[in-house]
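[User] I wish I could look at a protein chain and see how it folds. I have put the entry right below:
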Amino acid sequence: MDLEAKLAEHHGAAFGWALSCCRWDRHDAEDVLQASYVKILDGRARFAGISSFRTWLFGVIRRTAAEHRRRRALRRFLPLSRGERSPDSRGGESGAERALLRSEATERLITALGLLPARQRQVLHLVFYQDLTIAAAADVMGISLGTARTHYERGKRGLRAQLKDLRDE
């Protein structure tokens, strides 16, 4: 198997998962993803073929992110910066309004996700953003299927409640 080709194939999804594991801190996510790739390419993390490559890769990233957090325990997590979002330059005022509404909705979602417990947030990310099944998410997270289902349901319920509260404010 050509590891470099497989990593390139899954890079976008892997970076999204690294962002989620690092609470949307882009710098930490880049560091974690790079460290994960180094582990894989130098042989410290080996694909045994027990699960899909993507599921295994996400597990490596999750464990690397946990190691990264332990090493940098004093550093607090930061949400996505507002400076990365810019209004559509061709759209004029309506484009700017759309960008502002999208930006506000994104900020509400990130805030609501950040208020959920880590496991609930992680299983929701894997299922909704990475298109994994709950069973595959359980494999990535190293938990049982029943536990993953519980975190998934509680996470959806909690996210709905958080978004309602943020919308009402």
Q: What stands out?
A: The chain has two domains: 3-71, 92-168.
